[in-house]
Design brief:
With about 325 residues, the chain is an alpha+beta fold. Helices cover about 35% and strands about 25% of the residues. It has two domains: about 1-185, Ribosomal Protein S5, domain 2, CATH 3.30.230.10; about 195-325, GHMP kinase, C-terminal domain (Alpha-Beta Plaits, 2-Layer Sandwich). The radius of gyration is 20 Å and the shape is globular. The structure holds ligand 2P0. Ligand 2P0 binds near residues 34, 157 and 208.
């Protein structure tokens, strides 16, 4: 696995000589058309393309420095992690792909403004920020498209977190993974709002990586997923271009529920929802039947992300007092 990944990295980076300290910052992203399933586990190549919107103000900032004659030191939110910590081990394994020798180590300072493993995809902003910090530290000067290939190796959804606004991660066709990158969709939608509805932010029982692998291997319904995901992505892309909010909302909600249907139909079953998640869905459907255009999407966790337009903010806040409202395009 390591050799395959190192060979992949060799085709992208110009050298392995760190020049200075590096810094990277990246937002979390919410997929409107989801990534669920890999066609190649070593290279994190997905079975389907996906489309996301980034959440400005929520994400990761990473500082990186190469030190000769010491091992990696990894800080998460200013706390030094023990070397057997899962986050530290995963980070060090990723950094193995870039280190110039085995005598030195990286000092990594990661500040997350999202709870780790809470279904808000902190690994997405984490590996995107790390790819940017590496680019800065080694002074590679790589374009974002190339950095998204590197971020993808850390976590698939990280490929989309190199960008603000909408991003499209192409699944690619090649076995070597060089065409499986994300790029920005150059469209702003200032009225679009995302409402974060936290049901439970504790560590999830099964990681997305494991969950999607189990689904691919042990779900008869999964065969229908890749084609549906591609069709949904096209509809959402079109909805963004036409600013057709109903098409965006309906397709996104249906796409998320279809992804969860494949999880539920896996054996043993994977169910990230909690009773409060289902209660919130009913509340959203009730509001919609009363004429308020609100939809939801969900990832590998119990939390909901509401989709609505700015004009409905007050109604949404009245019905969901704890909702955190994000404007993905407030600065554009
Ligand atoms: C997404 N998720 O498109 C989907 C929807 C979760 C549900 O991408 O194994 O953490 O590291 O590539 O990127 C979460 O999966 O998985 C994810 P790996 P990742 O946002």
């Amino acid at each position: 696995m390591k050799n395959t990944q190192r060979h992949f990295v060799d085709q992208i980076i110009p050298h392995r000589t760190p020049k200075q300290k590096g810094i990277g910052q990246a937002p979390v992203n919410i997929a409107l058309s989801k990534y669920w399933g890999k066609r190649n586990v070593d290279l994190n190549l997905p079975t389907n393309s996906s489309l996301s919107v980034s959440l400005p103000g929520l994400g990761t900032e990473t500082h990186l420095e190469w030190m000769e004659n010491q091992s990696d030191e990894i800080y998460l939110n200013k706390t030094l992690l023990k070397s057997d910590n899962a986050f530290a081990q995963r980070t060090s394994l990723f950094l193995d792909l870039f280190r110039p020798n085995t005598q030195g180590g990286f000092v990594v300072n990661t500040i997350n403004s999202v709870p780790t493993a809470a279904g808000l995809a902190s690994s997405a902003s984490g590996y995107a920020a790390l790819a940017l910090a590496l680019n800065d530290c080694f002074q590679w000067d790589l374009p974002l498209k190339r950095l998204s290939l590197l971020a993808r190796l850390g976590s698939g959804s990280a490929s989309r977190s190199l960008y603000n606004g909408f991003a499209l991660w192409h699944k690619g066709q090649l076995d070597n993974g060089m065409d499986s990158y994300a790029e920005k969709i150059d469209q702003a939608w200032p009225e679009l709002c995302i409402g974060l509805l936290e049901i439970d932010v504790s560590e999830k029982p099964i990681s997305s990586t494991q969950g999607m692998q189990n689904t691919v291997n042990h779900c008869e319904l999964y065969a229908a997923w890749p084609d549906k995901a591609e069709a949904d992505l096209q509809k959402i892309h079109q909805a963004i271009e036409r600013k057709d909010f109903q098409q965006l909302g309906q397709t996104s909600e249906n796409n998320a529920l279809a992804m969860h249907a494949t999880m539920i139909a896996t054996w043993p079953p994977i169910l990230y929802w909690q009773p409060e998640s289902v209660a919130a869905m009913h509340q959203i459907w009730q509001l919609r039947s009363e004429g308020c255009e609100v939809y939801f999407t969900m990832d590998a966790g119990p939390n909901l992300k509401l989709l609505f337009l700015r004009q409905d903010t007050q109604t949404i806040q009245d019905h969901f007092p704890s909702v955190k409202v994000i404007h993905p395009f407030s600065d554009e």
